[in-house]
């Protein structure tokens, strides 16, 4: 197995009688940009949480290179969560703190307990945070309270915070679900830039099919916890989507952002 390949083997998670993820087996190579699509309840969020070990599988395993992630605990598990950063739909910023401090929170897992509680950061870490904000066009807002930013700006702060973990994999769970098309475009462009410039593997859950086609090299479509399609964006045609999800599939995928809006936001 390649050193930085993420491998899921017969991965499953049950919640009572419900199989949220059911027998998923996929390999994701280093540097891929993967979009995971599906209706609400398809298992997308559960899949990302299994990869990050925010929840444990009922069965199956996750491997990264020669490491079995599902068997990690303690310090080794904390190290994995640094390497596999997570971005959420809700931003999860500390709104009363300034933007720079929110970004520096991404370094806490690298500190001891006392230093973390006091939120003591080095000049080098502060410089790293400023560079991350500058990449996301947010350096002028560094000393502004996070709660005063727009939703799109807050999501980009969350991306900058994740970058300070120096991850190998970036997981994004519905990062644009609550954003207007313009801000959705900026967030997706930021993720694509990080993927291409840094070589970081990006796995992003999306509701909108057009967004996945526009930004993702590879698309995984899920239904009822099962992978129904795994291939290139160009091979996920409207006919394939209808075969998987039925006649209403396209309409449901575009319920958050219309096809016209997202296409106007995505540069040609």
UniProtKB/TrEMBL annotation:
Q: Which Pfam families match?
A: ABC_tran
SUPFAM superfamilies linked: P-loop containing nucleoside triphosphate hydrolases
Q: What is the top-level taxon of the source organism?
A: Bacteria
The text of the family note is: Belongs to the ABC transporter superfamily.
Q: Where is the secretion signal located? A: none
Organism per entry: Agrobacterium albertimagni AOL15
According to the entry, every stretch annotated as the ABC transporter domain falls at: 6-249
Spell out the protein name for this chain.
Answer: Phosphonate/organophosphate ester transporter subunit
